[in-house]
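Field log, afternoon session.

UNIT: design team B
ACTIVITY: writing a sequence onto a fixed backbone
BACKBONE:
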């Protein structure tokens, strides 16, 4: 019938797509929102051990207590000065020299997005500017629970294992020892800034849960925002595909927001594929990554392949390398030519409403190309809405192309095909007049292996 379909009836394009790319994923959420965005701002400040120093709170994940905290290098100037003295001035209320001072600051330029997912720089010095060693850095949340992280003494950085909760209250405690053996410990509680940073999240995953699929099924990761070119290789490294048959495969960015993985050749039947990975807390452009894959993968249980030949108006179905059915068919008529190339089945619906108005062909009943039909046994092969489906009204099936882009089948053949085919099976439409793009559904197999890995 047509390539894109209006909402209505028992399904529509958006609903069919959710069959494979649902509104709920086994990671955190499909669309980054405040529940997914566990991003806070980086710790910014100077903690003076042994004395109270003047200071201010910045774009941070922590709230300043009665003691003053002065701005550290790279911190934002935003905040409220909590003491009478200007930031960085010596304390007037204490005559005892501090044993040591510890500076905690971000490496991010002022005004840039800050977040506790990146390392916190920690340094120390004695009262007379002599060397001092930071011996311990810990962070706890408002409930007193320890926040997982790692302090690297050689780099002078403390890095959280993940993102802290935006607007959450956390306490950082630091201990340092001077060269003459003196030590000091101090704690400060800081609050996340209200204007925290945005995220680039895992918007959708295909397949979104373990399922039985055909042997042409790629792994598709879709991100909520474009990933900068310079970081795409690093993002791809964060995800791993393992399969029991150990076949060769590779990731490829098919668009700035989409990362696909496919094998060099199709998966063998019986193979089991598992995908793991996370971008949680990864700096991505001017945002932070959010999303961890849970139980994602699939089992390859079918090698069915269907091929449409416009010269014979037939769809030939093979399984295990043997032809199992030849179905009379018909594609798009002149001006509405069907897509050609290799397409992966992305879903199927028993009933789909197809209308000409939804694609701007005609909204006036009675016009030549007007239609509004409930279609049975529809198998989708492109994101733009190309289906193989039952067309019992078409008395030219097997003789001519009469559709508005879909592939017509008899009622009996459409039901048989619907019952046999799985998402991930390959459909090939011969011809070159309207080639399908890689991103129109799952057109990954239109690239040679050398093109895929280049």
């Amino acid at each position: 019938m047509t390539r894109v379909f209006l909402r209505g009836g028992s399904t529509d394009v958006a609903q069919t797509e959710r069959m494979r790319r649902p509104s709920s994923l086994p990671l955190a959420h499909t669309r980054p929102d405040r529940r997914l965005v566990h991003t806070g701002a980086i710790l910014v400040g100077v903690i003076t051990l042994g004395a109270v120093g003047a200071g201010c709170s910045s774009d941070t994940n922590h709230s300043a207590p009665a003691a003053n905290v002065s701005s550290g290098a790279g911190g934002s100037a935003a905040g409220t000065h909590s003491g009478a003295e200007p930031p960085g001035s010596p304390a007037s209320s204490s005559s005892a020299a501090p044993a040591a001072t510890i500076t905690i600051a971000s490496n991010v330029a002022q005004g840039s997005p800050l977040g506790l997912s990146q390392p916190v720089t920690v340094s120390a010095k004695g009262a007379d500017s002599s060397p001092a060693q930071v011996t311990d850095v810990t962070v706890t949340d408002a409930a007193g629970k320890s926040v997982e992280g790692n302090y690297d003494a050689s780099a002078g950085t403390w890095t959280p294992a993940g993102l802290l909760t935006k607007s959450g209250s956390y306490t950082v405690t630091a201990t340092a020892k001077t060269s003459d053996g003196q030590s000091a410990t101090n704690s400060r509680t800081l609050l996340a800034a209200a204007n925290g940073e945005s995220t680039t999240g895992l918007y959708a995953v295909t397949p979104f849960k373990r399922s039985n699929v055909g042997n042409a099924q790629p792994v598709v990761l879709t991100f909520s925002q474009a990933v900068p070119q310079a970081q795409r290789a690093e993002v791809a490294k964060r995800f791993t595909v393992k399969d029991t048959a150990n076949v060769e495969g590779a990731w490829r960015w098919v668009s700035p927001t989409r990362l696909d993985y496919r094998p060099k050749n199709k998966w063998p039947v019986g193979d089991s594929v598992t995908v793991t990975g996370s971008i949680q807390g990864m700096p991505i452009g001017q945002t932070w990554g959010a999303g961890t894959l849970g139980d994602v993968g699939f089992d390859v249980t079918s090698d069915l392949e269907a091929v449409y030949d416009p010269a014979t108006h037939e769809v030939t179905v093979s399984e295990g390398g043997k032809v199992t059915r030849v179905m009379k068919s018909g594609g798009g008529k002149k001006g509405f030519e069907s897509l050609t190339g290799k397409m992966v089945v992305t879903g199927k619906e028993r009933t789909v409403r197809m209308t000409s108005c939804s694609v701007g062909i005609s909204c006036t009943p009675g016009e030549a190309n007007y239609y509004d039909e409930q279609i049975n046994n529809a198998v989708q092969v492109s994101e733009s809405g190309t289906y193989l489906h039952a067309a019992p009204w078409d008395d030219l099936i097997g003789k001519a192309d009469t559709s508005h882009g879909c592939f017509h089948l008899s009622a009996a053949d459409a039901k048989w095909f619907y019952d046999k085919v799985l998402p991930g099976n390959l459909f090939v439409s011969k011809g070159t007049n309207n080639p399908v793009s890689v991103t129109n559904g799952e057109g990954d197999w239109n690239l040679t292996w050398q093109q895929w890995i280049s």
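LOG NOTE: The longest helix spans residues 411-420.
NEXT ACTIVITY: expression trials, pending approval
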